[in-house]
Structures are given as structure tokens and as C-alpha cells.
Amino acid sequence: EHFFSLSFVGTVPAMGMEASGSAIVFLLLLFIHVAHSFYLPGVAPQDFEKGDELKVKVNKLTSIKTQLPYSYYSLPFCQPKKIVDSTENLGEVLRGDRIENAPYSFKMREAQMCNVLCRITLDAKTAKAFKEKIDDEYRVNMILDNLPLVVPIERGDPGSPAVVYQLGYHVGLKGQYEGSKEQKFFMHNHLAFTVRYHRDVQTDSARIVGFEVKPYSIKHEYDGKWSEKTRLTTCDPHTKRLVVSSSTPQEVEPKKEIIFTYDVDFQAMKWASRWDAYLLMNDNQIHWFSIVNSLMIVLFLSGMVAMIMLRTLYRDISRYNELETQEEAQEETGWKLVHGDVFRIPTNSDLLCVYVGTGVQCLGMVFVTMIFAMLGFLSPSNRGGLMTAMLLLWVFMGLFAGYASSRLYKMFKGTEWKKIAFRTAFLFPAVVSSIFFVLNALIWGQKSSGAVPFGTMFALIFLWFGISVPLVFVGAYLGFKKPAVDDPVKTNKIPRQIPEQAWYMNPVFSILIGGILPFGAVFIELFFILTSIWLNQFYYIFGFLFLVFVILIVTCAEITVVLCYFQLCSEDYLWWWRSYLTSGSSALYLFLYATFYFFTKLQITKLVSAMLYFGYMLIASYAFFVLTGTIGFYACLWFTRLIYSSVKID
To answer: Which regions span the lipid bilayer (predicted)?
Structure first.
């Protein structure tokens, strides 16, 4: 479990009286002792005495083949007397989590063998439902004391961990009987659970540190008629007959009888961290390779930027400022020539303001989310925490979106700040919502638990209209009240004609070139993020991710400044939109990579699942475009203001 040590390094200012200083130090030390370690509410492990009842909960059924989650009881598994839903947070509901109570009965540190859960007879409909889920490789997910159920898989590779864990066990498996080519479906109807615990020697209480299962398929047999007290001949603790293999598997066919059984074993282990086994990572080297690869790009770009800065700020500027005669000034070429047009208001300036404001909102959300994640507040133990945090932060960052868009709007001599605030509050969320509604309708059609219920939909709409929109207007009002930013040089009344450009300065070409390096800086980390989202694995290496995010910001800023300088040197002053699109074009490469990932790594075959994948990746790419475009735009704005304020202009 993630817990945090707080330590203070610093000096207490002289108080005039030594006693007051030492009192403060004492209070600080006391505070450090009290706050030495703390757990996040709702995710702390519990202490259990021997014989305490353990509540097992079931979560959704998941498949990496369909990406459509279903609730556990959508299949005719054994049910408790009354199904009780656990309260889920916003993030859990959006992920499709449906946590309910299970019929399993565990007692702390009391092993059980061959417990019969229930007996069902399949009809044509239930047999078909089971077969479909087995064919789509659905997994059953369970939770015990906030730990997910895992299946240990032994690996023989040298240099890699001996055991890796997979989340959830398969509903069943496909196979053939020996000598037959007909494919049959078999059901995992016997579960051998292992609960790992750490015992406190002084109090004799124990904490759960692992929850594992080995599933088996076995055709259970018994003598005589079935009753509550019937003893199985295939699994009987009295005769020490236990299930250790799936040699006589349970077939899934109509009119077949299936008996569900389970064992529970308790194993003591040394306490490390409950999540260590789950978050076993053997690809550290790849992450470091990713960081080094990204840093090389940054160093290369930084070198270019430094060269340009030295050239422009030192040589060009001193040369421009030393020109004495008018004839010499007229003969001069380069970026100084366009000084009368470089701050000319661009076409569609309103839309640019809206996109810059939205980019600031995205940037703020991502930055704060990563800080929280690095501090461990959004660890995997806090299910749905990441999604909830991102949504709430997006909503509250509306304040900065309104402020940024109205400041730029006022710089462009705009007067109707309410109009720009309205557009900023609605453009990006409306595009994302419309894609989301279409995808949600598709999920509804599949009767999946991934479909967002009306109550949650209403909550999302309230967050947008009730909190985000008013905050955007407040931000826009505050931004518009401030005095306008003055241009460092005057703009001519008549626009200057742009000379014919070389082929490599063609807008489309330079925009597409500009997106390659920012994408190159993040694509290795992107592979891990896509794997965690679509292949149902944990992503928790937020330290690496934050480093990559910083590298992305630097790369976007530098590539845009470099290309902007080349553009101004070739006397093309239409840089406003070009700077946004140059770094923003990395989103195009992100979507192309997502397409490549779909065809090479995923096994999705259903049309609906493919539409879900591309729909969500389209939303992600759109958000990435807005984020990277804004970084490039602000870098270029800073650069042009810097160089044009440094030269004397008659």
C-alpha cells in the first residue's frame, strides 16, 4: 500500500528567544512523528483476528478481445441470497466497474476444502451465454480487502521474475478431447484460492497481502440423489481427495449439470508491500531507454535553439542596431524586414483564442494529475481515482482556460469577452461529448456494464454546465479586466507581400515535420500507456511519465521556436496558427501509432470494439493536439516578442 514519510529539512528563523525556537522544533518533531505515515481514506488495509469473516466481492467480467465489460451476475453464476451493490466513485463507473457481494464465505486463517457453492443445470440460453464469454476470453475479477484477485503464472525465462500475475481468471477454456477434432467449451468450476497474510506477532492480528487463485475445470461426481448434504466423490476433504488438475473437465452443453466448488488456503508471508507482487516490473531498462532517447532529442533541439538565440540576439540584433544609412536598411533581409507585420492579427483569431484557452486547461489538468499520481494519491489501490481526479481537475481548470483565452482575445483587440468565454466553455467539451455519446450508445446496444448510467451522465453534465462553464466565464472576466498586452513593434496599415517560399518552407510540410520530434520523445512511454488501458494491466510508473511529460513540453517549445525562426527569416510573418499546428501535428502521429498498435498488438475482432478503440483514441489525440499546440504557441509568442523588442525600429 502506498504510504508516505514526511520529513522536513530547513532552519527555524531566529526568534530572539532560544526557548521559542526550541519549542517550535519540538512541535515540528512531534508533528513529524504523528504524520510519519498515513494511508489514503478507503484504501487502508484492515487488521483481522483469527476466525473473522472476510468479505469477497465480485467485479466486472473483462476481455481484451472485446473491450466490453459485463457485470458478474450477467452470467448464471452462483448468487448470494441478496445481491448488494458497492458504492462506486465516478471513475469506477466510467471504467465499467460493477462491484457486488459474492456467495463465497472465508474465515481468516481457517482453511477450507471442497466447499460446494451451488449446483446449476444449463439450458440452451445459459449454455450459449457461457460459450460466448469463454470464446471471447472473458476473465472474472474479484476483490478481497481492496486487493484484486490474480492468477500466478510461472515463467521459465532466466532474468525475468519467476512468477507473473494476471488479473482475474478465465471463465473457461476451449479444447478438444483426445482423438477428436471437434472443439468443446469447458468451464472453470473449481477455484483454489490462496490468501496470503502478514501476522503481527504482538497482537496476533493479521493483514491480507495477497489474493490468488488457481482455476480448474472438473466434472464433479456424487453417489445417489443430490441434496444439501451430498458429499462429492471427486472432491472430498474426509478422504483427502482434492482437485489438483483438470483431467476430467466440465463441459458446457445444454442439460449438463455443473457443480461449483472452492478451496481456501491461508499462507503467511513476510510483509513487504501489499502491491509489490501486483506491480512487478521487469521493463525498467526500456523506460530508461525511452528517457535517454527523449533526452537526445531535447539536447539536439536545445543546441539548435541556443545557436539561433546567439545568432539572433547577438549577431543579428547588433547588426540591425548598427545600421546607419537608409540605403543599408533597405538592403537588409531576414526577420527584421517583417517587423511591421509580425504582430498582425491572424485570420480566425477568435478560434485561436478558444484553442489556446482549452490547451491551458488540458495542460493544467495533466500537470496537477501527475503531481498527485507521483505522490501516490492515485495508486492502483485507489480504484477509479485517476479518472475521477482528471475529470474534477478538468472542470476546475476552466478558470485558467477562460483567463488565457480572454487575455489573448484582448491582445487581438477583441471587445466581446462573453462570446469568447462561451466558445471556450463549449467547443472542446462538445466535440468530446458527442463522440462519447455515440460510443456510449454502442455500448448500451451490447448490454455491457461499461455503458454510463443516466445518473452518472447527469453528474457529468452538471460538472460541465454547473461548475466548468461558470468558472470559464469568471476566468474570462478576470482576464479581460487586465490591461491589454502591447506589441513590441507597431503594425503597418498595409500588409506586406510574402515572397515565394522554398519547397521546404511550405506550411503543410513544415507543420508535419514539426510534429515528428515531440511524438518521438513520448512514443515508447505511449506503448506502456496503451498496454495498460487496452490489455488490462496496471500503469503506475508516474515518475517516468512525469519526466517524459517535461521532455515533451521542452521538445514542443523548442521545435516550434526553431521552425518559427526559419519562417520569419524567409519573410513569412503568418506564424500565429503555424506555431500552434507545428507542435500540435504530433497528435496526428499519435493517432497513426494507435492505429498501428491496434493491428499489431490487439486481438479485437468485433466491429463495436474496434469503433470503441478508435473513438477513444480520437478523443485522446484531440486532447493531445490541443495540449501540444498550446505549448508551441506560447513558446513562439515569447520568442517573437523577445527578438522584436530587442531591435531598434525607426
So the answer is: 288-310, 352-378, 384-404, 425-445, 457-480, 501-534, 540-568, 580-599, 611-639
d(CA 503, CA 293): 30
Q: At what angle do helices 398-411 and 417-445 cross, to 10 degrees?
A: 140
Pull the grid cell for residue 225: 440423489
Rounded Cα distance, 21 and 39, in Å: 31
With a pLDDT cut of 70, the percent of the chain lying above it is 88
Lowest average pLDDT, out of 7-11, 128-132, 212-216, 339-343, goes to: 7-11
- Helix locations, 310-396, DSSP H: 317-322, 326-331, 349-374, 385-396
Q: Is the pLDDT of residue 39 over 60?
A: no
Rounded CA gap, 201 and 293, in Å?
49
Measured distance CA(213)–CA(124) in Å, rounded: 29
**Is a pLDDT exceeding 90 seen at residue 162?**
no
The whole-angstrom separation of Cα 72 and Cα 489 is 67
d(CA 340, CA 365): 37
Task: Please state, in angstroms and rounded to a whole number, the distance separating the CA atoms of residues 293 and 331.
Answer: 44
Q: Is 11 helix (H, G, I), strand (E, B) or coil?
A: coil
Confidence at residue 21, expressed as pLDDT on a 0 to 100 scale: 43
Q: In whole angstroms, give the CA distance from residue 448 to residue 96.
A: 8
- Given a cut of 60, is residue 363 above it in pLDDT? yes
Between 132 and 41, name the one with better pLDDT. Answer: 132
Question: 204 — phi, psi (to 5°)?
Answer: 65, 5
Three-state helix/strand/coil letters over 415-476: CCHHHHHHHHHHHHHHHHHHHHHHHHHHHHHCCCCCCCCHHHHHHHHHHHHHHHHHHHHHHH
Question: Bigger pLDDT: 273 or 304?
Answer: 304
Residue 195: CB partners within 8 Å, gap ≥ 6? 54, 106, 144, 208, 210, 211, 212, 264, 265, 266, 267
pLDDT for 156 equals: 67
Q: What is the pLDDT of residue 58?
A: 95
Q: Which of 168-182, 407-421, 532-546 has the lowest mean pLDDT?
A: 532-546
Q: What φ, ψ does residue 610 adopt, rounded to 5°?
A: -65, -40
Identity at 261, one-letter amino acid code:
T
| Inter-residue contact 529 to 616 (CB < 8 Å) | no
CA 285 to chain centre: 22
How far from chain centre, in Å, is Cα 264? Answer: 35
Residue 212 predicted with pLDDT over 80: yes
**515, three cell numbers:** 510534429
Describe the strand order of the beta sheet including 172-175 as a list of residue ranges. 172-175, 184-187, 250-251
Burial degree of 286 (CB within 10 A; 0-12, 13-18, 19+): middle
